[in-house]
Amino acid sequence: MSERASFARRIDVLAEIFAFTAAAFARQGVSAALLADVDFALEELFTNIVKYGRGKAPVSIEIAAIADGVEVTLTEPEADRFDVTKAPPVDITLPAVQRRPGGLGLHLIPRLVDSVQYGYSEGERCSRIVLRKTSAAPSPGAAGNREERC
Questions:
Q1: Whole-angstrom distance, CA of residue 56 vs CA of residue 65
Q2: Closest by CA position to 135, among listed 61, 68, 41
Q3: Cα–Cα distance between 52 and 57 in angstroms, integer?
Q4: What is the pTM of this model?
């Protein structure tokens, strides 16, 4: 069983996204302990789409319970290719004043979830990001990309 909803590309819909994830977790019996990490990842990804994406079509989020966790798929139509699994590294050892602003959210996401996968359909200009989060410890470096259809 999975649930899907679409959201306008506006920052002010974040509360709607969080309400959707909380309700979907509850209906599907996904542990609420996983919700904060999933919501953080979705907030980072969605705000990047709003800030940097050029498309106008709504972004869809699908939530599906999996063994001991959840799989969340964020689909962006009218997208330019941007592989979130290959975001430039952030040197977190530097003091904040010496770092270049931006990129910290994409740096944190793979550390909060078990895996991040990126897929892009060139012909449809559609990107898909799939996050998996379980109660088990995250797998370091569990990221990848693939060519797919949306």
A1: 29
A2: 68
A3: 14
A4: 0.82
The Cα 98–Cα 76 span in angstroms is: 33
Largest CA distance in the chain: 46
The radius of gyration of the chain's CA atoms, rounded to the nearest angstrom, is 15
Q: In what order do the strands lie in the sheet with 126-134?
A: 2-7, 59-66, 69-76, 126-134, 115-121, 143-147
For 132, half-sphere exposure in the C-beta direction (CA atoms, 13 angstrom radius) is 17
How large is the angle between the packed helices 35-52 and 14-28, nearest 10 degrees? 150
Mode of pairing for the β-strands spanning 2-7 and 59-66: antiparallel
- Per-residue pLDDT tens over the stretch 91-119: 666 666 765 655 556 667 888 899 999 99
Distance CA 45, CA 22 (A): 17
Asked whether 115 and 142 are in contact (CB, 8 A), the reply is yes
